[in-house]
Amino acid sequence: MTSKDRGILIVLSGPSGVGKGTVCKALRSCTPELIYSVSATTREPREGEVEGVNYFFKSREQFQQLIHDDQVLEWAEYVGNYYGTPRKFVEDTLNAGKDIILEIEVQGALKVKQKFAEGVFIFLLPPSMDELENRIVGRGTESEESIRSRMSVAMDEIRLMEHYDYAIVNDRVENACSRIKSIIEAEHCRKDRVVSKIKQWMAEVN
Amino acid sequence: MTSKDRGILIVLSGPSGVGKGTVCKALRSCTPELIYSVSATTREPREGEVEGVNYFFKSREQFQQLIHDDQVLEWAEYVGNYYGTPRKFVEDTLNAGKDIILEIEVQGALKVKQKFAEGVFIFLLPPSMDELENRIVGRGTESEESIRSRMSVAMDEIRLMEHYDYAIVNDRVENACSRIKSIIEAEHCRKDRVVSKIKQWMAEVN
Protein backbone atom coordinates (compact mmCIF):
# COMPACT_ATOMS: atom_id res chain seq x y z
CA MET A 1 0.00 0.00 0.00
CA THR A 2 2.83 2.35 0.88
CA SER A 3 4.60 2.26 -2.48
CA LYS A 4 1.88 4.08 -4.42
CA ASP A 5 1.13 6.59 -1.67
CA ARG A 6 2.68 10.00 -1.45
CA GLY A 7 5.84 10.08 0.65
CA ILE A 8 6.22 11.93 3.94
CA LEU A 9 8.56 14.83 4.73
CA ILE A 10 10.32 14.15 8.03
CA VAL A 11 11.95 17.18 9.65
CA LEU A 12 14.55 16.26 12.28
CA SER A 13 15.60 19.09 14.52
CA GLY A 14 16.75 19.84 18.05
CA PRO A 15 19.10 22.04 20.05
CA SER A 16 22.71 22.52 19.09
CA GLY A 17 24.84 19.76 20.62
CA VAL A 18 22.09 17.15 20.77
CA GLY A 19 23.59 14.96 18.05
CA LYS A 20 21.27 15.53 15.05
CA GLY A 21 24.09 14.87 12.59
CA THR A 22 25.19 11.64 14.24
CA VAL A 23 21.63 10.31 14.34
CA CYS A 24 21.08 11.25 10.69
CA LYS A 25 24.28 9.50 9.65
CA ALA A 26 23.23 6.34 11.51
CA LEU A 27 19.77 6.53 9.91
CA ARG A 28 21.39 6.56 6.47
CA SER A 29 22.93 3.17 7.05
CA CYS A 30 19.85 1.52 8.60
CA THR A 31 17.16 2.98 6.31
CA PRO A 32 18.66 3.13 2.80
CA GLU A 33 15.23 3.77 1.25
CA LEU A 34 14.96 7.16 3.00
CA ILE A 35 15.94 10.12 0.82
CA TYR A 36 17.93 13.02 2.31
CA SER A 37 17.00 16.57 1.42
CA VAL A 38 19.73 18.34 -0.57
CA SER A 39 20.27 22.03 0.20
CA ALA A 40 20.82 24.80 -2.31
CA THR A 41 23.68 27.24 -1.81
CA THR A 42 25.37 30.15 -3.53
CA ARG A 43 28.81 29.25 -2.21
CA GLU A 44 31.41 27.80 -4.58
CA PRO A 45 31.60 24.00 -4.83
CA ARG A 46 34.57 22.52 -2.97
CA GLU A 47 36.74 19.87 -4.51
CA GLY A 48 34.84 16.60 -4.87
CA GLU A 49 31.41 18.09 -4.19
CA VAL A 50 28.78 16.92 -6.67
CA GLU A 51 25.80 18.97 -7.90
CA GLY A 52 22.55 17.47 -6.62
CA VAL A 53 24.37 15.22 -4.15
CA ASN A 54 26.17 17.59 -1.76
CA TYR A 55 24.30 20.71 -2.81
CA PHE A 56 22.41 22.33 -5.63
CA PHE A 57 24.83 25.11 -6.58
CA LYS A 58 23.12 28.35 -7.59
CA SER A 59 24.14 31.87 -8.52
CA ARG A 60 22.89 34.67 -6.25
CA GLU A 61 20.42 35.67 -8.98
CA GLN A 62 19.11 32.11 -9.30
CA PHE A 63 18.73 31.79 -5.53
CA GLN A 64 16.92 35.12 -5.21
CA GLN A 65 14.57 34.05 -8.01
CA LEU A 66 13.82 30.80 -6.12
CA ILE A 67 13.00 32.82 -3.00
CA HIS A 68 10.82 35.16 -5.05
CA ASP A 69 8.97 32.20 -6.58
CA ASP A 70 8.36 30.60 -3.14
CA GLN A 71 10.59 27.71 -4.18
CA VAL A 72 12.65 27.48 -0.97
CA LEU A 73 11.03 26.04 2.17
CA GLU A 74 13.49 27.99 4.36
CA TRP A 75 16.68 29.90 3.77
CA ALA A 76 19.34 31.86 5.62
CA GLU A 77 22.46 33.83 4.77
CA TYR A 78 25.82 32.89 6.34
CA VAL A 79 29.06 34.73 5.64
CA GLY A 80 27.65 36.27 2.50
CA ASN A 81 26.20 33.08 1.01
CA TYR A 82 22.64 31.82 0.80
CA TYR A 83 21.74 28.33 2.03
CA GLY A 84 18.24 26.87 1.81
CA THR A 85 15.93 23.93 1.18
CA PRO A 86 14.61 23.80 -2.38
CA ARG A 87 10.93 22.91 -2.52
CA LYS A 88 11.12 21.08 -5.88
CA PHE A 89 13.46 18.29 -4.71
CA VAL A 90 11.20 17.65 -1.70
CA GLU A 91 7.99 17.67 -3.79
CA ASP A 92 9.45 15.44 -6.52
CA THR A 93 10.59 12.90 -3.93
CA LEU A 94 7.21 12.85 -2.17
CA ASN A 95 5.33 12.54 -5.47
CA ALA A 96 7.50 9.55 -6.34
CA GLY A 97 6.11 7.90 -3.19
CA LYS A 98 9.36 8.18 -1.25
CA ASP A 99 9.94 9.63 2.20
CA ILE A 100 12.46 12.43 2.59
CA ILE A 101 14.26 13.62 5.71
CA LEU A 102 15.52 17.11 6.39
CA GLU A 103 18.00 17.67 9.25
CA ILE A 104 17.88 21.30 10.29
CA GLU A 105 18.30 23.63 13.27
CA VAL A 106 15.27 24.63 15.31
CA GLN A 107 14.48 28.03 13.75
CA GLY A 108 14.81 26.64 10.22
CA ALA A 109 12.44 23.78 11.04
CA LEU A 110 9.78 26.23 12.21
CA LYS A 111 10.10 28.13 8.93
CA VAL A 112 9.60 24.85 7.04
CA LYS A 113 6.49 24.18 9.13
CA GLN A 114 4.96 27.46 7.98
CA LYS A 115 5.25 26.38 4.34
CA PHE A 116 4.84 22.64 4.75
CA ALA A 117 2.57 21.93 7.70
CA GLU A 118 1.88 18.37 6.47
CA GLY A 119 5.47 17.42 7.32
CA VAL A 120 6.23 15.32 10.40
CA PHE A 121 8.30 17.37 12.83
CA ILE A 122 10.58 15.45 15.20
CA PHE A 123 12.48 17.14 18.01
CA LEU A 124 15.62 15.42 19.27
CA LEU A 125 16.23 15.80 23.01
CA PRO A 126 19.30 15.12 25.13
CA PRO A 127 18.86 12.42 27.80
CA SER A 128 19.06 15.21 30.40
CA MET A 129 20.07 18.85 30.67
CA ASP A 130 23.27 17.71 32.42
CA GLU A 131 24.10 15.50 29.46
CA LEU A 132 23.53 18.38 27.03
CA GLU A 133 25.95 20.51 29.06
CA ASN A 134 28.48 17.65 29.02
CA ARG A 135 28.23 17.47 25.25
CA ILE A 136 28.70 21.22 24.86
CA VAL A 137 31.60 21.25 27.35
CA GLY A 138 32.94 18.10 25.70
CA ARG A 139 33.80 20.03 22.56
CA GLY A 140 36.56 21.42 24.78
CA THR A 141 36.95 24.70 22.97
CA GLU A 142 34.53 26.90 24.86
CA SER A 143 34.99 29.35 27.72
CA GLU A 144 32.72 29.15 30.75
CA GLU A 145 30.82 32.19 29.58
CA SER A 146 30.39 30.68 26.14
CA ILE A 147 29.10 27.44 27.66
CA ARG A 148 26.55 29.36 29.76
CA SER A 149 25.44 31.24 26.68
CA ARG A 150 25.13 28.07 24.59
CA MET A 151 23.14 26.35 27.35
CA SER A 152 20.80 29.33 27.49
CA VAL A 153 20.28 29.14 23.72
CA ALA A 154 19.66 25.39 24.00
CA MET A 155 17.04 25.99 26.69
CA ASP A 156 15.29 28.52 24.46
CA GLU A 157 15.39 26.00 21.62
CA ILE A 158 13.95 23.22 23.79
CA ARG A 159 11.02 25.52 24.66
CA LEU A 160 10.17 25.49 20.91
CA MET A 161 9.57 21.74 21.14
CA GLU A 162 5.87 22.47 21.58
CA HIS A 163 5.60 23.24 17.86
CA TYR A 164 6.74 19.74 16.94
CA ASP A 165 4.76 16.51 16.52
CA TYR A 166 7.20 14.18 18.27
CA ALA A 167 10.02 14.49 20.78
CA ILE A 168 12.54 11.69 21.03
CA VAL A 169 15.39 11.26 23.47
CA ASN A 170 18.83 10.68 21.99
CA ASP A 171 20.03 8.44 24.82
CA ARG A 172 21.70 6.05 22.36
CA VAL A 173 21.96 6.60 18.64
CA GLU A 174 20.43 3.16 17.86
CA ASN A 175 17.44 3.92 20.07
CA ALA A 176 16.90 7.30 18.43
CA CYS A 177 17.06 5.65 14.98
CA SER A 178 14.58 2.96 16.00
CA ARG A 179 12.17 5.64 17.27
CA ILE A 180 12.44 7.63 14.05
CA LYS A 181 11.82 4.50 11.96
CA SER A 182 8.76 3.67 14.08
CA ILE A 183 7.43 7.21 13.70
CA ILE A 184 7.76 6.99 9.92
CA GLU A 185 6.00 3.60 9.78
CA ALA A 186 3.25 4.79 12.14
CA GLU A 187 2.71 8.01 10.18
CA HIS A 188 2.10 5.97 7.03
CA CYS A 189 -0.68 4.20 8.95
CA ARG A 190 -2.43 7.36 10.14
CA LYS A 191 -6.07 7.14 9.23
CA ASP A 192 -6.06 10.40 7.30
CA ARG A 193 -3.34 9.08 4.97
CA VAL A 194 -5.21 5.80 4.34
CA VAL A 195 -8.80 6.96 4.15
CA SER A 196 -8.87 8.24 0.56
CA LYS A 197 -7.59 4.90 -0.70
CA ILE A 198 -10.28 3.05 1.23
CA LYS A 199 -13.03 5.32 -0.10
CA GLN A 200 -11.87 4.33 -3.58
CA TRP A 201 -12.27 0.62 -2.73
CA MET A 202 -15.70 1.19 -1.31
CA ALA A 203 -16.80 3.06 -4.45
CA GLU A 204 -15.55 0.19 -6.65
CA VAL A 205 -17.52 -2.40 -4.66
CA ASN A 206 -20.78 -0.42 -4.60
CA MET B 1 12.15 7.50 29.82
CA THR B 2 9.21 5.23 28.93
CA SER B 3 9.24 3.13 32.08
CA LYS B 4 8.09 5.89 34.44
CA ASP B 5 5.52 7.33 32.05
CA ARG B 6 1.88 6.37 32.05
CA GLY B 7 1.10 3.52 29.68
CA ILE B 8 -1.08 3.78 26.59
CA LEU B 9 -4.39 2.04 25.90
CA ILE B 10 -4.32 0.53 22.41
CA VAL B 11 -7.71 -0.41 20.98
CA LEU B 12 -7.49 -2.84 18.06
CA SER B 13 -10.65 -3.20 16.04
CA GLY B 14 -11.87 -3.84 12.51
CA PRO B 15 -14.62 -5.59 10.57
CA SER B 16 -15.65 -9.16 11.23
CA GLY B 17 -13.42 -11.54 9.26
CA VAL B 18 -10.40 -9.23 9.10
CA GLY B 19 -8.26 -11.33 11.43
CA LYS B 20 -8.17 -9.30 14.67
CA GLY B 21 -7.81 -12.41 16.80
CA THR B 22 -4.96 -13.84 14.72
CA VAL B 23 -3.05 -10.55 14.81
CA CYS B 24 -3.55 -10.23 18.56
CA LYS B 25 -2.31 -13.76 19.12
CA ALA B 26 0.81 -13.05 17.06
CA LEU B 27 1.36 -9.80 18.97
CA ARG B 28 1.35 -11.73 22.24
CA SER B 29 4.37 -13.71 21.17
CA CYS B 30 6.37 -10.79 19.74
CA THR B 31 5.60 -8.16 22.39
CA PRO B 32 5.50 -9.98 25.75
CA GLU B 33 5.61 -6.66 27.63
CA LEU B 34 2.18 -5.67 26.28
CA ILE B 35 -0.72 -6.39 28.66
CA TYR B 36 -4.03 -7.69 27.31
CA SER B 37 -7.26 -6.29 28.64
CA VAL B 38 -9.31 -8.87 30.56
CA SER B 39 -13.09 -8.72 30.13
CA ALA B 40 -15.68 -9.06 32.85
CA THR B 41 -18.62 -11.41 32.36
CA THR B 42 -21.63 -12.80 34.23
CA ARG B 43 -21.46 -16.18 32.54
CA GLU B 44 -20.27 -19.18 34.53
CA PRO B 45 -16.54 -20.02 34.39
CA ARG B 46 -15.78 -22.96 32.12
CA GLU B 47 -13.41 -25.68 33.20
CA GLY B 48 -9.85 -24.41 33.38
CA GLU B 49 -10.78 -20.72 33.14
CA VAL B 50 -8.99 -18.59 35.69
CA GLU B 51 -10.37 -15.48 37.39
CA GLY B 52 -8.42 -12.38 36.24
CA VAL B 53 -6.75 -14.28 33.39
CA ASN B 54 -9.58 -15.42 31.11
CA TYR B 55 -12.25 -13.18 32.63
CA PHE B 56 -13.25 -11.37 35.76
CA PHE B 57 -16.31 -13.39 36.78
CA LYS B 58 -19.11 -11.31 38.28
CA SER B 59 -22.66 -11.81 39.47
CA ARG B 60 -25.39 -9.88 37.62
CA GLU B 61 -25.70 -7.58 40.62
CA GLN B 62 -21.98 -6.90 40.70
CA PHE B 63 -21.90 -6.20 36.94
CA GLN B 64 -24.89 -3.85 37.13
CA GLN B 65 -23.19 -2.03 39.99
CA LEU B 66 -20.05 -1.61 37.84
CA ILE B 67 -22.15 -0.16 35.02
CA HIS B 68 -23.89 2.16 37.48
CA ASP B 69 -20.53 3.34 38.86
CA ASP B 70 -19.15 4.01 35.33
CA GLN B 71 -16.61 1.24 35.89
CA VAL B 72 -17.03 -0.48 32.51
CA LEU B 73 -15.61 1.18 29.36
CA GLU B 74 -18.14 -0.69 27.20
CA TRP B 75 -20.51 -3.57 27.73
CA ALA B 76 -23.05 -5.66 25.86
CA GLU B 77 -25.45 -8.47 26.67
CA TYR B 78 -25.27 -11.77 24.72
CA VAL B 79 -27.57 -14.73 25.33
CA GLY B 80 -28.54 -13.42 28.73
CA ASN B 81 -25.03 -12.66 29.98
CA TYR B 82 -23.15 -9.40 30.35
CA TYR B 83 -19.69 -8.95 28.83
CA GLY B 84 -17.64 -5.78 29.20
CA THR B 85 -14.29 -4.06 29.71
CA PRO B 86 -13.62 -3.14 33.34
CA ARG B 87 -12.09 0.31 33.71
CA LYS B 88 -10.04 -0.54 36.82
CA PHE B 89 -7.82 -3.15 35.18
CA VAL B 90 -7.07 -0.73 32.33
CA GLU B 91 -6.35 2.19 34.68
CA ASP B 92 -4.18 0.12 37.03
CA THR B 93 -2.10 -1.15 34.11
CA LEU B 94 -1.63 2.35 32.65
CA ASN B 95 -0.72 3.79 36.05
CA ALA B 96 1.92 1.08 36.42
CA GLY B 97 3.51 2.49 33.24
CA LYS B 98 2.49 -0.44 31.07
CA ASP B 99 0.69 -0.42 27.74
CA ILE B 100 -2.52 -2.40 27.44
CA ILE B 101 -4.27 -3.65 24.30
CA LEU B 102 -7.97 -4.25 23.89
CA GLU B 103 -9.22 -6.31 20.93
CA ILE B 104 -12.84 -5.49 20.26
CA GLU B 105 -15.45 -5.23 17.52
CA VAL B 106 -16.10 -1.88 15.85
CA GLN B 107 -19.15 -0.69 17.80
CA GLY B 108 -17.53 -1.61 21.13
CA ALA B 109 -14.40 0.34 20.21
CA LEU B 110 -16.45 3.45 19.54
CA LYS B 111 -18.08 3.13 22.96
CA VAL B 112 -14.61 2.89 24.54
CA LYS B 113 -13.60 6.03 22.66
CA GLN B 114 -16.45 7.97 24.28
CA LYS B 115 -15.13 7.13 27.75
CA PHE B 116 -11.42 6.96 27.00
CA ALA B 117 -10.60 9.36 24.19
CA GLU B 118 -6.87 9.35 25.09
CA GLY B 119 -6.62 5.75 23.85
CA VAL B 120 -4.96 4.98 20.52
CA PHE B 121 -7.55 3.52 18.15
CA ILE B 122 -6.26 1.22 15.41
CA PHE B 123 -8.50 -0.09 12.64
CA LEU B 124 -7.46 -3.32 10.95
CA LEU B 125 -8.27 -3.47 7.23
CA PRO B 126 -8.32 -6.39 4.82
CA PRO B 127 -5.81 -6.13 1.93
CA SER B 128 -8.82 -5.58 -0.38
CA MET B 129 -12.60 -5.96 -0.38
CA ASP B 130 -12.18 -9.11 -2.51
CA GLU B 131 -9.92 -10.58 0.12
CA LEU B 132 -12.42 -9.80 2.88
CA GLU B 133 -15.11 -11.62 0.88
CA ASN B 134 -12.74 -14.58 0.41
CA ARG B 135 -12.19 -14.76 4.16
CA ILE B 136 -15.92 -14.65 4.89
CA VAL B 137 -16.67 -17.26 2.17
CA GLY B 138 -13.67 -19.26 3.38
CA ARG B 139 -15.46 -20.07 6.60
CA GLY B 140 -17.49 -22.35 4.29
CA THR B 141 -20.62 -22.37 6.39
CA GLU B 142 -22.52 -19.45 4.95
CA SER B 143 -25.28 -19.19 2.33
CA GLU B 144 -24.93 -16.69 -0.52
CA GLU B 145 -27.48 -14.45 1.14
CA SER B 146 -25.63 -14.62 4.44
CA ILE B 147 -22.35 -13.73 2.70
CA ARG B 148 -23.95 -10.71 1.04
CA SER B 149 -25.36 -9.63 4.37
CA ARG B 150 -22.01 -10.07 6.15
CA MET B 151 -20.23 -8.09 3.42
CA SER B 152 -22.76 -5.30 3.79
CA VAL B 153 -22.14 -5.21 7.55
CA ALA B 154 -18.39 -5.18 6.93
CA MET B 155 -18.74 -2.22 4.56
CA ASP B 156 -20.72 -0.33 7.19
CA GLU B 157 -18.02 -1.13 9.73
CA ILE B 158 -15.24 0.06 7.41
CA ARG B 159 -17.06 3.38 7.06
CA LEU B 160 -16.56 3.83 10.82
CA MET B 161 -12.78 3.83 10.26
CA GLU B 162 -12.90 7.63 10.20
CA HIS B 163 -13.30 7.65 13.99
CA TYR B 164 -9.97 5.86 14.46
CA ASP B 165 -6.42 7.23 14.70
CA TYR B 166 -4.72 4.64 12.53
CA ALA B 167 -5.72 2.18 9.82
CA ILE B 168 -3.43 -0.72 9.07
CA VAL B 169 -3.70 -3.33 6.39
CA ASN B 170 -3.61 -6.96 7.50
CA ASP B 171 -1.86 -8.22 4.36
CA ARG B 172 0.42 -10.48 6.38
CA VAL B 173 0.16 -11.05 10.12
CA GLU B 174 3.87 -10.18 10.66
CA ASN B 175 3.44 -6.88 8.81
CA ALA B 176 0.36 -5.97 10.83
CA CYS B 177 2.27 -6.75 14.06
CA SER B 178 5.22 -4.64 12.97
CA ARG B 179 2.90 -1.72 12.21
CA ILE B 180 1.19 -1.99 15.59
CA LYS B 181 4.55 -2.11 17.37
CA SER B 182 5.69 0.98 15.46
CA ILE B 183 2.49 2.82 16.32
CA ILE B 184 2.98 2.07 20.02
CA GLU B 185 6.62 3.23 19.95
CA ALA B 186 5.71 6.36 17.98
CA GLU B 187 2.82 7.23 20.29
CA HIS B 188 5.21 7.16 23.26
CA CYS B 189 7.25 9.79 21.40
CA ARG B 190 4.35 12.15 20.70
CA LYS B 191 5.26 15.58 21.92
CA ASP B 192 2.21 15.91 24.16
CA ARG B 193 3.25 12.80 26.08
CA VAL B 194 6.84 14.03 26.54
CA VAL B 195 6.34 17.74 27.15
CA SER B 196 5.40 17.62 30.85
CA LYS B 197 8.56 15.69 31.66
CA ILE B 198 10.69 18.21 29.80
CA LYS B 199 9.06 21.15 31.57
CA GLN B 200 10.12 19.48 34.81
CA TRP B 201 13.76 19.35 33.62
CA MET B 202 13.66 22.98 32.60
CA ALA B 203 12.30 23.99 35.99
CA GLU B 204 15.07 22.07 37.75
CA VAL B 205 17.75 23.81 35.72
CA ASN B 206 16.35 27.32 36.12
Automatic annotation (TrEMBL), chains A, B:
Origin: domain of life: Bacteria
EC assignment: 2.7.4.8
Function: Essential for recycling GMP and indirectly, cGMP.
CDD domains documented for this protein: GMPK
Reactions it catalyzes: GMP + ATP = GDP + ADP
GO MF, one annotated term: GMP kinase activity
Domain Guanylate kinase-like: 7-185
InterPro entries according to UniProt: GK/Ca_channel_bsu, Guanylate_kin-like_dom, Guanylate_kinase, Guanylate_kinase_CS, P-loop_NTPase
Pfam families from the UniProt entry: Guanylate_kin
Keywords: ATP-binding, Cytoplasm, Kinase, Nucleotide-binding, Transferase
SUPFAM superfamilies hit by this protein: P-loop containing nucleoside triphosphate hydrolases (SSF52540)
Protein name, entry field: Guanylate kinase
Entry annotated with the keyword Glycoprotein: no
NCBIfam families in alphabetical order: guanyl_kin
Residues engaged in binding ATP: 14-21
One GO CC annotation: cytosol
Family: Belongs to the guanylate kinase family.
Keyword Oxidoreductase: no
Subcellular location: Cytoplasm
